[in-house]
Every structure is written in structure tokens, then in C-alpha cells.
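User: Quick sanity check before I run a bigger batch. Here is a single chain. Can you write out its predicted 3D structure?
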Amino acid sequence: MAETETNRNQKLASSRSQPEKSCYFATDRRNFLRAVGGLTTLGLLAGCIGGMSENANADDKSASSVDGWLAESDNYDSITDMTGEAAVTIEVGPESNEHVFAPAAVRIDPETTVTWKWIGSGYHNVVDRDGQFESGEPEETATFEHEFKTTGMYFYYCTPHKSVGMKGVLIVGNDSDSTSSNSTETGTGSE
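Assistant: Done. Predicted structure follows.
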């Protein structure tokens, strides 16, 4: 019995000299900050990924008119009419505004070859919303050509700058049912 009482007294004395630890939160400040930082990073990544995968496609498909698709573009005010031209050049990132296609909206005839020519110093590409054509990875200096044989509307964008309104539209043929803009501007052909 004396031995048991001695053990009990030793345990009681040692528990008084050590700080009390909770079984639920045995952390120090460093571990707490690591956990908070990790959760914050995870939350930010989840928000970015979720927004890109769900909302990007919904926004693209809802803008089925020229005016709707180019609502965020800095240089769109009308459709440039380049019908009658065998070849047309669209400037990519001109020095006047690095994040636009110039002109933004163009009407052409079927069998017309369109050349996108990189003018500015930024990294750009040309990607059709529906996957009909793509210039590849963003580049600083390049040209890209595509011949449009089928009538219709082609909505395209620059991948790195899509969110700032770097978008364009090609109207091949006289597809005026899908365009909201009634005015057209007469343009010149390629260089």
C-alpha cells in the first residue's frame, strides 16, 4: 500500500510541474500558421479551378451574338466589311492596344484566307471557341493563316488575354441573322 501511495504522489507532483496539454489541440504557433496557410492556399486554388471549368464555358456559349461576345473588347464598335477580298489580315496585339484583335469583327466571303499577324510585343495566340482552328501555344512574334470555306460565325480569342476582352469574330458569308450590330464599316484587304 505504501508503494501505491508513493506512485500516486509522484504522478500528482509531475502533473503539477508540466503545463496542461489538451488532447484536442496539441499545437504550437508555427504548426497553427502552417495549417492556416495551407487551408488558405487550398481554398484559393479550388476557387480558381472551379471558376475556370464551370463558368468559362457557360459565359462563352451565352455570347452568341457579335455584340455579346465582344462586349468586353476595347476596340469593337462595328463589323468591318471585307467581303470581296481574297485575303484579309487581322492584327494581333497592335501597339495601340496590346490586348485586342484589329479589327475585332470582320465580315468576309467564303473561300477567304485570313492571316493573323502579331504586331505588338506580348505573347498571344488565336483559338476558335468551338475548336475549328487554333494557332497553337502563345508566341511573341508569329503569323497564322486559316481559309474559311463554310459560312457561319466564328468566335475566337487569345488564351492568355481572354479575360481582359481579347476576342474577335469572323462572319463568313451573309449570316446577318446572328449578328446584333446592323452597322458595318468598309475595310481594306490584306497588306
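The two ends are 107 Å apart (CA to CA).

User: Great, the batch can go ahead then.
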